[in-house]
Amino acid sequence: MQTEDDRVVFDQSRTVSWTSTVPFHPRMAKMSGREVLEAIRAGLLAPPPLARVIGFHIVAVGDGQAEFALEPRGDLENLAGALHGGVAASLPTMRWARRCNPCCRPGRARRR
Questions:
Q1: pLDDT digits (tens, 9 = 90+) for 63-93
Q2: Backbone dihedral region of 36: left (phi > 0), alpha (psi from -120 to 50 degrees) or beta?
Q3: Is the pTM of this model over 0.85?
Q4: What share of the chain is helix, strand, coil (3-state, %, to 5)?
Q5: Which of 45, 61, 95, 103 is the most exposed place for a label (fewest CB within 10 A)?
Q6: If you average pLDDT over every residue of the chain, what do you get?
Q7: Domain ranges (residues) in the chain
Q8: Phi-psi region of 53 (alpha: psi -120 to 50; beta: other; left: phi over 0)
């Protein structure tokens, strides 16, 4: 919103809540990538905090695939009014997306 003297006034805010995923790490180490995603989707494991900040959520999990969704919001737009490329690029870089990788079997070390 602009004021009469054309200075920007920041009149919108957003509150995000999350929990640490650290307490879930031992449990997740014993699970396959699919099991981790299914547990996050069911609310049994906490999603990565970045997923909460951006607003990604798991829609479906299947053999070797997962579907995520995001509701576009004004705070995720670039200067042209489209979804910022950094938002879209964050999904494949988030740890939970890598858990879909078939090499992440239960008990196998994951990169940190």
A1: 888 888 988 899 999 999 999 998 988 877 6
A2: alpha
A3: no
A4: 35, 15, 50
A5: 103
A6: 82
A7: 31-98
A8: alpha
